[in-house]
Structures are given as C-alpha cells and as structure tokens.
Amino acid sequence: MAAGRLDIINQVKTGLDAITTGNGYSVTVGGVEKVLRDWNDSETFPRPWIGFRPAQESYKYEMSHRLRCTLQLQLVAHVTPAAGAVDAVYTQIENLSDDIIRALRQGVLRSGCAESITLTQTQTTEGDPSSFESASLSMLFNIVYYRTEPTG
Questions:
Q1: What b/e string do you get for 68-87 counting C-beta neighbours within 10 Å, with b at 16 or more?
Q2: Confidence at residue 91, expressed as pLDDT on a 0 to 100 scale
Q3: Whole-angstrom Cα distance, residue 137 to residue 142?
Q4: Domain-by-domain residue ranges, the chain?
C-alpha cells in the first residue's frame, strides 16, 4: 500500500463526514474536526460532533526497507441527549458508536490506505447523571499500514 499517515488521517475525516442518515447511517453528524475538544469547547457546534487525533505510532521493520506501522487514533464524540430520557442516551451513544466503526472501516480500509483498523477501547458517559445534558463517547483505534523506510 502506497498510502501514508496523512492519507489515513484525511480518509478518517472523509469517512466520518459521510455519517448521515442519507448515506444509510443511524445518525447525521453535525461536525467533524481533526482536533479533540471537550464538551465545553464544542458546545456551540452542531451535534453529534466528532473530533479525532493521531496518538502514539509504533513501527516494526520488515524485509526490503518496509515498515509495518501501527497508528493509534483517539476519537471523541459528543451528543445532545433527548431531554430526560435515560434510554435515549444509551441509544444515541450506541448508534453513534456503530456508525463510527462502520464509517472508519469503510473509509480507511476501502480506500486502500490501511491493512486493518481495530477498535481497542471505548469509554462513555452512560450512567453518569450529567450525561442527560451532555453525553460523550471516547474511542481508541489501531490502524495498521505499511510504508517504505526513509533512507538517507
């Protein structure tokens, strides 16, 4: 695969931007940024809002100057729950989570930018009394891709 790190980041953004009910997803995302924001920093943005950033990256040397790269991608999403409905918070987080997983698999893998993408961790505000006003979702993915070792 000839794609690089920047190609993957751009495909992540493109894939997340495509989350709309018109494209067959459960929700329509109001905004996507290549930056993480907490609830207060993003409260004026249309909801659901998704932010992401590349985190740690590791490399494994292989034959013929190839590197097997594992890029960790951190993602945060914020939703505005339906007023006072506990089940609505759970449903919104679940639907958004499923949509994000599907969008990333389709956007990054189908574009040929990566060999695999794996969800490794999820954390939500479900069950927190404050989530009735501001529900959030945090996800951590590992994206595996190959690149040629830089030579001097």
A1: ebbbbbbbbbbbbbeeeeee
A2: 86
A3: 17
A4: 5-74+87-147
